[in-house]
Amino acid sequence: MMDFNNTSFHPATFQLTGFPGQEAAHRWISIPFCVVYVTAMVGNCTVLCIIWANRRLHQPMYLFLCMLSVNDLGMSLSTLPTVLSIFCFDVADVAFDACLAQMFFIHFFSFAESRILLAMSFDRFVAICEPLRYAAILTNPRIMRIGLAVVIKSTSTVFPFPFLIKRLPICKGSVLSHAYCLHPDMMRLACADTTVNNIYGLFAIFVTYGLDSVFIILSYVKILTTVFNIASREQRRTALNTCASHICAVLLFYVPIIAISVMHRFGKNAPRLVHILMSYAYLFVPPVLNPIIYSVKTKEIRKGISRIFSRDLI
Questions:
Q1: What is the distance between the alpha carbons of residues 42 and 128, in angstroms, rounded to a whole number?
Q2: Could you tell me which residues come within 8 angstroms of residue 236 by beta carbon, excluding any fewer than 6 positions away?
Q3: Considering only Cβ atoms within 10 Å of each terminal Cβ, which end of the chain, N or C, has fewer?
Q4: Pairing state of beta strands 93-95 and 13-15?
Q5: DSSP string, the chain
Q6: Mean of the pLDDT values across residues 41-57?
Q7: What is the per-residue pLDDT for 24?
Q8: At residue 2, does pLDDT exceed 60?
Q9: CB atoms within 10 A of CB 118
Q10: DSSP string, 163-220
Q11: For residues 109, 157, 251 and 239, what is the CA-based torsion angle, rounded to 10 degrees?
């Protein structure tokens, strides 16, 4: 029986779900999750330390990469408490207000990542299409204003979510579908009209993922047009190489989002395990692979890592 608090129709706690039917194997399942978290933490912290220590890397491209790494760390820390509590300690209950807080931060960092990727595409657009004005356009104060705008816009977009959930009576149970709290998952347990939640949720997705992805595509259309007008094949290759890491980061972020949307609409008969794995991919893959991609594809980051290992060997 659910435990409701006295002042509202909200459960005192929500029960999170790991992999249904695999509760006995949770300790083993926790091992890859721990590896994922350690990899994400170490990778993103390494990128931040390398850029911080090398003043020559205090340039727009690397400052935006710092924003991405900080955001990926935030995303990992947002999911870590509940995921590890389920798989390591078999503790599935989370307080109602704590669930709201986790929902806020997960959606905040997700929306912020989309906007940071848009800012990074603008950086590549200016670098390739307006190289002579690059330093004049992307000054440090302007980059700081872009970062502040990302925080303000993401906060204002996510801010209504907890209040939209809190106004709803939750009476269809207290079991969520994932190992963390999400707005759609909490909303489905309400026994009242959720039209406002649905409309605002779609609006938030459109103004964030929808518009950001359109502007990213438009920027790369212009970038490719400019690159293919360059006469030298070597210069074309160099210009495209500077975009390779960002393109991979965009695909890592948007492909799982698109896949989840398709699954929700056309794959309702797919096994539940597939839906769960896609959800984990959406939240866990970018923080793990982004620093690896930038370490492999960016010469300066590779050199910084080589210097770190050289000192350790000495």
A1: 31
A2: 227, 228, 230
A3: N
A4: antiparallel
A5: ---B-SSSS-BSEEE--SSTT-GGGHHHHHHHHHHHHHHHHHHHHHHHHHHHH-GGG-SHHHHHHHHHHHHHHHHHHHHHHHHHHHHHH---EEEHHHHHHHHHHHHHHHHHHHHHHHHHHHHHHHHHHSGGGHHHHS-HHHHHHHHHHHHHHHHHHHTHHHHHHHTS-B-S-SB-SSSS--HHHHHTTBSS--HHHHHHHHHHHIIIIIHHHHHHHHHHHHHHHHHHT-S-HHHHHHHHHHHHHHHHHHHHHHHHHHHHHHHHHH-TTS-HHHHHHHHHHHHHHHHHHHHHHHHHH-HHHHHHHHHHHHHHH-
A6: 91
A7: 80
A8: no
A9: 21
A10: HHHHTS-B-S-SB-SSSS--HHHHHTTBSS--HHHHHHHHHHHIIIIIHHHHHHHHHH
A11: -100
Residue-wise pLDDT tens digits, 113-146: 999 999 999 999 999 988 889 989 999 999 999 9
Average pLDDT (242-267) is 83
pTM for the complete prediction? 0.92
> Distance (Å, rounded) from C-alpha 137 to C-alpha 155?
26
What does the block give as tokens for 231? 């006469």
**Angstrom distance (rounded) from CA 80 to CA 282:** 15
Q: Give the pLDDT confidence score for residue 312 in this predicted structure.
A: 54
Domains of the chain from N-terminus onward: 14-313 (1.20.1070.10)
Residues 240 and 265 sit within 8 Å (Cβ to Cβ): no
User: Which pair of tokens denotes residue 206?
Assistant: 């459109």
Distance CA 283, CA 76 (A): 8
